[in-house]
Write a structure and sequence with these properties.
- By secondary structure, the protein is mainly beta.
- It has a single domain, classed as Jelly Rolls, CATH 2.60.120.10.
- The protein contains one helix and nine strands; from the N terminus they run H-E-E-E-E-E-E-E-E-E.
- Strands 1, 2, 3, 4, 5, 6, 7, 8 and 9 form a nine-stranded antiparallel sheet that branches.
- The radius of gyration is 21 Å and the shape is globular.
- The N and C termini lie far apart (72 Å).
Length: 154
C-alpha cells in the first residue's frame, strides 16, 4: 500500500512538473515590473504589461504607464477604444488637434476615462503619474501631426 501511494505521488508530481507554466494573472504592487515604453511614446515613460500582448494584432491587454512630471503626449487617436484609470498623480487631458494646456482637464488618482477611436486628444502628467490602460490590441498611437511621432525621429 505504501509503495502504491509513493508511486502515485511521484506520478502526480511528474505530471505537475510537466505542465507548462501559466502566465501570471494576479500582481501585488511590488510584482509590477516597468521597462522602457515603446518607441511611439516620447522618451521618459516606462511601461509594465500586466495582461496580453498590447502589440499583437488582436486580443485583450492591460498595461501601466509611468510618466515623469511634465511628460507630454502630442495630439493623437487610437485604432480601438482606450480605457484609462489614474492610479497615482494627475493626468491632464485635452481634446483637439493642437496641444493647448489652457484647454486641458485634470484627472487625479481614482479617475477613469475612455477614448473612442475618433477622439483626437492629448495628455500631460502633473507630478509623477501612473495610469492603467486596457483595451483591445493593438495598442497604437496615431499622431495627428506625423512629425510628433517619436519613432519617426532619428
Amino acid at each position: 500500500m505504501k509503495l502504491l501511494f509513493l508511486v502515485s505521488s511521484l506520478f502526480a508530481i511528474a505530471l505537475l512538473a510537466a505542465q507548462p507554466s501559466l502566465a501570471q494573472n494576479a500582481f501585488t504592487l511590488d510584482q509590477v515590473k516597468f521597462g522602457p515604453a515603446p518607441p511611439f511614446l516620447p522618451a521618459g515613460a516606462q511601461l509594465a504589461v500586466l495582461e496580453g500582448d498590447p502589440m499583437a494584432a488582436t486580443g485583450d491587454y492591460t498595461v501601466r504607464l509611468k510618466m515623469p512630471d511634465g511628460y507630454k503626449i502630442a495630439p493623437h487617436t487610437h485604432p480601438a477604444r482606450e480605457n484609462v484609470s489614474v492610479l497615482s498623480g494627475t493626468i491632464k487631458v485635452g481634446m483637439g488637434d493642437q496641444f493647448d494646456a489652457s484647454k486641458m482637464m485634470s484627472f487625479g488618482a481614482g479617475s477613469f476615462a475612455y477614448m473612442d477611436p475618433s477622439m483626437h486628444h492629448y495628455a500631460a502628467a502633473s507630478g509623477e503619474t501612473v495610469i492603467q490602460i486596457h483595451g483591445m490590441s493593438p495598442l497604437k498611437i496615431n499622431y495627428i501631426n506625423p512629425a510628433d511621432d517619436p519613432s519617426m525621429k532619428k
